[in-house]
Structures are given as structure tokens and as C-alpha cells.
Design goal:
The structure is a homodimer of 271-residue chains. By secondary structure, chain A is mainly α. In chain A, the strands form three sheets. In chain A, strands 1-2 form a two-stranded antiparallel ribbon. Chain A has a two-stranded antiparallel sheet with strand order 3-4. The first copy, chain A, has a two-stranded antiparallel sheet with strand order 5-6. In chain A, helix 1 crosses helix 3, helix 6 packs antiparallel against helix 7 and helix 9 packs antiparallel against helix 10. The longest helix of chain A is centred in the C-terminal third of the chain and has 23 residues. Chain A starts with 14 loop residues before the first strand and ends in an 8-residue tail after the last strand. Chain A binds a DNA duplex (21 and 21 nucleotides) through helix 3. Chains A, B: This is FadR/GntR family transcriptional regulator. Chains A, B: InterPro entries: GntR_C, TF_FadR/GntR_C, Tscrpt_reg_HTH_GntR, WH-like_DNA-bd_sf, WH_DNA-bd_sf. Chains A, B: Pfam families: FCD (PF07729), GntR (PF00392).
DNA sequence: CTAGATTTGTTCGTATGTATC
DNA sequence: TGATACATACGAACAAATCTA
């Protein structure tokens, strides 16, 4: 019944050139069956314009359709799951469910890329310095009343954490202020980049200097800057917001240098 | 010998809260064994500081070590392969080989994220307008003689493509100019972001307007701007380079609007 | 709330293709 | 030219999760 070698169905046994960089012989290799199916399903999601929540055929149907075994289908689906395009649902009416790739998955992926690169935090601030200014302009006039009250609450929280000298809470609260700004933006790329940089600063920064005075000054500056920003946002003054943010980033960058900050590159893969 | 239920070894049957957004019941779910192993191996790569080219134990060894079957190990390795951290090598002395996650994999991942977002190109230019200026400053004085000659060659190529009215070649050549600049930068995050935006403009832009005159003007402007940039780079004048780049991006943005440019969002998943 | 049905998750055994020696 | 070591693929079965009656 079942013929091992080849079947009908949509699969073509395309032989493509696949670079094998570190091996001496960069030869022609048969593309893995599961990878072919992965690509097929991706195209299908794109072509049929599937939306988050839509279901793909279950494993059994896919096995029959592509004429392959369960393990192969599972590998193909696994790839799409890792890419964030699917999630598997078990039970009746289960099966692969289309998902919108989340910002977290892309964040993790970008971190994995940076793990093997030479990243210091001067680079991060070189970017943040301009991106946060663009963000400040972008959200001015777009922040709702609810956003503004949450920003005010965040400042209070930040202030309290500073008083308690709880550095961990200070850091999370400080980055959350900027994350709230992102929520008001309509530029998805800008949002991604700013949130990515925020997450790096939240999760991966360590200070070699323990000087309490400097840390306190840093915290006080942040609260002041955020207060000024909030005022500018309330006044819907984009130029003022941009100017304050620019100054804020300059100061933060200097403080970080003074506190001898660096990234925990050893945590970048796993967190 | 082999006991089905549970084994010693590093695996803990941790039950964690896993959100199931679109399903009614967001219940506790056992984390998939293959996912646990994926995480374990990721930690291992990080902890042992493995470098690209290093080999992991082969499938059989991993099966024994984690006390699970081939299919499970294969799914775990598949995940790491998709993440770009591994590639599989068959044959003697084969096995999973550690790889540095490539910029292309991250690019694809970010595109997959954008597929489900509302992305228009005004957003792209809002970013590019500032990022390319930062890049111009960053690479001034860092461009080698070789870079400069390649930029000059690229300008000649761009000019020729313009004369021939070959829009496809014009577009690839124009973005390549900016990619060459990236090569000279030392800021890996900046490089990634600029190259990502470049690739979007190269692969996914379509023009609704076919007005030849406008396209010719656009092409002529680009060549002029690139020539001016090259001169500024040669003079190692960062301020001039930044000013020219800023003007260049402004113009490009206007041209794109006039030509009624938009993204082929239907190609973003598969290309 | 229980019982059965449905579907994913995992295992074992086996066979085949592929690269190295 | 094998022989070897490894990934790749198949198939049948059972376990676990989850929906529905």
C-alpha cells in the first residue's frame, strides 16, 4: 500500500543549493521534507489570509494530505510553533491554531542574535537617545486621559521605590513609564524597537559601581524628567516633550556610564 | 530496562501556568517535554559558552541523557534549528552543530510579526529618517578606503540603472548603498535596524503610480544625494554627512508619497 | 460530574539516505 | 569500494489533555 519513495500530492522533491558554511564541501542537499511542508503551510497561511484563531487541519489530515508520517508533520508544525505563527490545541476540535506572532517571540529571537555579537550599552543608548525622542513626539496628543493617569501613578510608584532604595523595583517602574508611552504610539516598528531596548535595560543591566549616592541621584533625575514629560504631554507640546526626552536620555546615558553599567550577556539567551 | 513513566536525569516535570488566550479555559498545563529539553539545551549553550562550530551530543546520546525518545529530541532540536542556534549535520562526526543566529533569521521573524500588524510605509520612514542619520554619523571616519571605492562603484551602477530605466536594478542598487554603510558601523543594533528597513524597501515596496518622470527624478535625486554623502565621508565631516542624509531621507519620503508607494503585505510572510 | 470521543504528545522499532573514513 | 555513524523518515501503539453528551 504505502510506497516509501515518493507519492503524489503537493510535495515536489526539489533539490536546492543549501550552503553548509562551516563544512568544507558546500554541496547540493535534499531539502528536508518537514521544512518543505513548513514552507507550504506558511504560504497557505499567507495565501488564504488566515487570521489568529483560525484552525488548520489536524495532524492526521495533514499526514494524509502531504503523504508523510506523523513525526514529519509534527516537526513541520513545531517550526511554525517556534516562529509564533501557530499553537497546538489538544482535545476534540483541537489542532494547529493560527496565532499572531507575538512581540515577545521576536524579542527573544533578536536577543539570540545579539548573544553572538559584541553588544555594549553605549550602542543601546546611541539608539535610544534618538528613538525615544521620536516616540515622545509621536505620542504627544495621542495619549489618552487613561494613559496620562497611569503615567502619573507610575511616577508615584517610582518615587516610592526610590525612597525605599529598592533598586529592582525602581528599574522595572522606570522602564514601565516608557512602555506606557509605547502603548499610545501608532508606529508598530517604533514600538517594537523602543520596547526591545526597554526590555534589555530592564532585564540585563548590571552595575559595577554600588555608589548609593549616584544611584539616588539617578533615581531622582528620572522622577523629575518623567514629571516634566507628563506636563509636556498634558500640554500637548510635542517640541517640549522631545526636548525633555532628549535631555532625559542624555542624562541617563551619563549616569549609566558613571555607574559602570554593562549587560549580562550570559543571560541574554535564556531570559 | 526502560521505564515509561518517569526517569531520573535533569528533567523536572514542572507544571507551569501557560496562557491559552483564545480558549475559554486558561488552565494549568504540563509544559511539553520537548519544550523543556529545548530550554535545557539553550541554557547549556549559554552556560558552557559554546561557540559556532561546536558540536552537541548526537541524537542517541541526547535520548539517553534526557531519557526520552527520538521524536521528542528531534522536536527539541528542530526548535533550536528554527531559532538559528543549531544546524543538523549528518554522517560520521555529525550531530547538532552550534551556529550563530543569523541576521536573516531575525529579519524573517520580525517580518512574521509585522504580517499581523498595521504597517504602512510612513512608519518606516518615520524611523529611517532618524536612524540613517545616526548611521551616517556613526560610520563617518570609520569607512575604509575599500568601503569608499565600493560606494563609488555603487553610485556608478545606480546611475547606469537609472539611464536604462530598469527600476528593479535601481531599487536594489539604491538600498545596497545603505547596506554598505551598515558594514562600516560598529553598532550591531543600529546595523540590524537599518538593514531591516532597507530589506523591507528592497523586497516589499510597490508603486501605484507609474509616472516615469517622477521615477526619473527620484532616481536622479538618489544619485546626487549619494554622491554628496560620499564626498562628506571622504572629508570625514560627520555634521555634513548627517545633514545630507537627513535631507536625503526627507526627499525620499516625499517621493515615495508622491509615487503612492505601499508594502506588499501579502509577501511579507514568505519572502 | 462522570464517561466517552477526539486530538495532540510521546514512545518503540525499523528502514533508508548521506557523509566520513 | 565498502564499512561506519549519523540524521531522516516511516508506522503502530499508548498516554495525556480536553471537549461534549
Amino acid at each position: 500500500m504505502s510506497d516509501h519513495t515518493n507519492k503524489d500530492g503537493p510535495r515536489e522533491m526539489a533539490r536546492i543549493g543549501k550552503d553548509t558554511p562551516s563544512r568544507p564541501a558546500g554541496r547540493l542537499t535534499r531539502i528536508k521534507l518537514s521544512d518543505q511542508i513548513t514552507e507550504e503551510i506558511r504560504r497557505r497561511i499567507s495565501r488564504e489570509g488566515l487570521h489568529p484563531g483560525d484552525r488548520l487541519p489536524n495532524e492526521r489530515s495533514l499526514m494524509e494530505y502531504y503523504g508523510c508520517s506523523k513525526g514529519t508533520i509534527r516537526e513541520a508544525l513545531k517550526a511554525l510553533e517556534v516562529e509564533g505563527l501557530l499553537r497546538m490545541v489538544s482535545g476534540p476540535n483541537g489542532g494547529p491554531e493560527v496565532q499572531a506572532a507575538s512581540i515577545d517571540i521576536v524579542t527573544q529571537q533578536l536577543r539570540r542574535y545579539l548573544h553572538f555579537q559584541k553588544l555594549d550599552f553605549a550602542q543601546v543608548y546611541e539608539l535610544r537617545q534618538t528613538l525615544e525622542v521620536v516616540l515622545a513626539r509621536n505620542v504627544t496628543g495621542r495619549l489618552t486621559e487613561e494613559h496620562l493617569t497611569r503615567l502619573a501613578q507610575n511616577i508615584a510608584l517610582c518615587d516610592a521605590a526610590n525612597q525605599a532604595q529598592d533598586r529592582e523595583r525602581v528599574r522595572t517602574a522606570e522602564t514601565e513609564f516608557h512602555d506606557i508611552l509605547c502603548e499610545a504610539s501608532d508606529n508598530v516598528m517604533l514600538i517594537f524597537m523602543c520596547r526591545f531596548l526597554n526590555s534589555m535595560l530592564r532585564d540585563l543591566v548590571s552595575y559595577r559601581s554600588e555608589a548609593m549616592v549616584e544611584h539616588d541621584h539617578f533615581g531622582a533625575h528620572n522622577v523629575d524628567a518623567h514629571r516634566d514629560l507628563l506636563a509636556a504631554f498634558r500640554a500637548r507640546d510635542a517640541d517640549a516633550a522631545a526636548a525633555i526626552m532628549s535631555e532625559h536620555m542624555d542624562c541617563a546615558s551619563r549616569f549609566m556610564r558613571k555607574l559602570d553599567a554593562s549587560f549580562h550577556m550570559d543571560r541574554i539567551l535564556t531570559r
